[in-house]
Design goal:
It is an enzyme of class 6 (ligase). Keywords: ATP-binding, Folate biosynthesis, Ligase, Magnesium, Metal-binding, Nucleotide-binding. Its EC number is 6.3.2.12, 6.3.2.17. Pfam families: Mur_ligase_C (PF02875), Mur_ligase_M (PF08245). With 435 residues, the chain is an alpha/beta fold. It has two domains: 279 residues, UDP-N-acetylmuramoyl-L-alanine:D-glutamate ligase, CATH 3.40.1190.10; 141 residues, Alpha-Beta Complex (Protein-Tyrosine Phosphatase, Chain A). Helices cover 38% and strands 16% of the residues. The chain has an eight-stranded mixed sheet with strand order 4-3-2-5-1-6-7-8, with helices on both faces. A six-stranded mixed sheet has the order 12-13-17-14-15-16, sandwiched between helices. α13 links the parallel β15 and β16. α2 runs parallel beside α5, α4 crosses α5 and α7 packs parallel to α8. It is globular. The two termini are 25 Å apart.
């Protein structure tokens, strides 16, 4: 039996496009596999542009604190594909993943299918064969025609904040993109909707009315806010006074709120307040305002410097990250330095303009793990259009070394950002991959 990487390489050749949104191919394969999607644990499906993974991470932490066994499907991975499939608290092991890939490859028999579709079918086989109380199923791209949207009756649906991203596949405006995200809504299945732009919310509400999905909307039916160093969650069932999330950033208040609202919307889960508190304090989600305080990369910076990592890559993500960096600066001022790599499918100008007036310097770096990466010079040009002083580098390590040499009397706060692919490379280089 080959290793999982060999199967992934072969799967890439099964379709001429990396992304081809459709349900027909995966429905055919799932049928041939005996419909594992119908034998999976109860599903909570999560769509959205920003905050999907964080909201799922909050739910997992709260459910596990309540003693539940939870599977998770998420994408993309940071370092290894295995991160996408979590079985009862652990990433799928290599032998089991490779054996399942071998099975789906044999059943597919060389027919055309995308990488995401065939690996999603493999994940569903694994989830169906391993008992659990719940499966948190994160949408890959969009929702309506995403390969995960084959579950006929989930326990609940979640739509996190919708913003401009993947316009080539989903549409050029928020209403069109939200329409695709809302394709996960199902008749009589409760749907929790995080705070949205008005155009996005209108599109979601229209789709919910069409299919008959009851909505619980942030700012209307529930709200999460920070008060006096605490997270206050309020809905029709009352008010919870909770600790702030372990994940850094004001945007994580809304992500945590969506998680809490979802668990309270599904009565059969019966998650007590104490488990919610423990989940908020113990949640872990790599590359989302993650402080790298150990490993190889921090040693390249001067004593007293800080190194942070975030995989944000669209304009709304940039604004959320910049806001968090500004909050950190208010509490403990340090010169802010950015190390940025981005894909050519992303709005670099829109992402970087959020940091104008905040970051003192930017180093553009390559992303070796993606053929769609922008050259460092292109990142620098976008930074300069945003009014940032910028310089191209050949690697993360070179950028950190230059930041160290340029440091003044106050050691810098360095943020590596712009892409989840870059975040994965940083974690691998640091010797601290997700575990």
């Amino acid at each position: 039996m080959d290793g999982s990487d060999a199967y992934l390489d072969r799967f890439l050749a099964l379709h001429p496009k990396e992304i081809d949104l459709s349900l027909g191919r995966i429905e055919r394969l799932l049928k041939d596999l005996g419909h594992p999607e119908r034998a999976m644990p109860p599903v909570v499906q999560v769509a959205g542009t920003n905050g999907k993974g964080s909201s799922a991470a909050f739910m997992r932490a709260m459910l596990e604190a309540a003693g539940r066994r939870v599977h998770v499907y998420t994408s993309p991975h940071l370092v290894r594909f295995h991160e996408r499939i979590r079985l009862g608290g652990r990433f799928v092991d290599e032998d089991r993943l490779a054996a399942t890939f071998e099975e789906v490859e044999r059943v597919n028999d060389g027919r055309q299918i995308t990488l995401f579709e065939i690996t999603t079918a493999a994940a569903m086989l694994l989830f169906a064969r391993e008992p659990a109380d719940l499966l948190l199923l994160e949408v890959g791209l969009g929702g309506r025609y995403d390969a995960t949207n084959v579950v006929e009756k989930p326990l609940a649906s979640v739509i996190t904040p919708v913003s401009l991203d993947h316009q080539k596949f989903l549409g050029d405006d928020l209403g069109a993109i939200a329409h695709e995200k809302a394709g996960i809504l199902k008749s009589l299945v409760p749907a929790v909707i995080a705070r949205q732009d008005a155009a996005a919310l209108e599109s979601i509400e229209r789709e919910a009315a069409k299919v008959g999905a009851p909505l619980s909307i942030s700012g209307q039916d529930w709200q999460a806010r920070e008060e006096r160093g605490r997270l206050v969650f309020e809905d029709g069932d009352g008010l919870l006074d909770l600790p702030l999330p372990r994940l850094v950033g004001r945007h994580q208040i809304e992500n945590a709120g969506a998680a809490i609202a979802t668990l309270r919307a599904v009565e059969r889960l019966n998650v007590e307040t104490r488990a919610i508190e423990v989940g908020l304090s113990s949640v872990d989600w790599p590359a989302r305002m993650q402080r790298l305080s150990s490993g190889r990369l921090p040693t390249l910076l001067p004593t007293g410097a800080e190194l942070w990592l975030d995989g944000g890559h669209n304009p709304d993500g940039g604004r959320a990250i910049a806001s968090t960096m500004a909050e950190l600066d208010e509490r403990s001022p340090k010169p802010i330095v950015l190390v940025v790599g981005m894909l050519n499918t992303k709005d670099s100008d829109g992402f970087l303009e959020a940091f104008a007036g905040l970051a003192g310097r930017l180093y553009g770096v390559p992303i070796g793990s993606s053929t769609a990466a922008r050259a460092p010079d292109e990142v620098v040009a976008a930074a300069e259009r945003a009014g940032l002083a910028a310089e191209a580098c050949g690697s993360i390590e070179e950028a950190l070394a230059k930041a160290s040499r340029a440091a003044g009397p106050v050691p810098p706060r360095v943020l590596i950002t712009g892409s989840l692919y870059l975040a994965g490379e940083a974690l691998a280089a640091n010797g601290t991959p997700p575990g």
